[in-house]
Amino acid sequence: KYKKEIKPLLKDKYKKAVYTKIPKYVLKKLEKTIDENPDIILIDRSLFDRAIWIDRLYKKEGISKQEYEQYLKYYLPIIKENINIIIGTYTDSLTSLRRDYKSNLSLETRSFLNEQNVNEYNISLKNMEEFANKNDVNFKLFDTTDITVRELSFKIVKEILKDMREYYINGVNQEFNEKGEDNERVNQKTKK
């Protein structure tokens, strides 16, 4: 669906695609995956990533402040309720371009991947990091400029495992407390 219906809109109707079509598509896929009730869902791009692109669109005056705020107001609760941890990576624009060149051996100029676009994206990424911190979204941002992919992998896994451990311990504690409260109510009724 994305390649047939949404991607073509990026050329002619960029705002509509970024502001409505792509987020709705991403949300629908997320909801479908959640309905399958897996233990863990790993997502490469999701609603938080869309918020970064919306911030960038807002900074370029592609949407109004009201549209920007409405978008965040609508999607923030969905993000908080459905996504336990968000991992973001960051590097400066020149390192990004150098990595792209090395991995793709691309001599021609890219249509999107250029210094200005990477810098704009990074500004919006930092804005969303600040937004996440203010709104209690579990977002971890890793600067990859001076570390290897292996080092980054270990750092990310460490964060995810720490987060999962906390999530499951809180779940067990909550279940234990609820059972304890139920037992206490039963004991009180028995004493009467």
Describe the protein in words.
With 192 residues, the protein is mostly helical. The chain is built from 8 helices and 2 strands; from the N terminus they run αααααβααβα. Strands 1-2 form a two-stranded parallel ribbon. The longest helix is centred in the C-terminal third of the chain and has 43 residues, at 149-191. 11% of the residues are buried. The mean pLDDT is 85.
Strand order of the biggest β-sheet: 1-2
| N-to-C CA distance | 63 Å
Largest beta sheet, briefly?
Answer: 2 strands, parallel
Cα Rg = 21 Å
Q: What structural category arises from helix and sheet content?
A: mainly alpha
Percent of residues in beta strands: 5-15%
Anisotropy-based shape:
globular
DSSP, total strands: 2
In the predicted model, the low-confidence regions spanning at least 5 consecutive residues are none
The H/E string reads: HHHHHEHHEH
> Helix coverage percent of residues?
over 70%
- How many helices does DSSP assign? 8
Mean pLDDT: 85
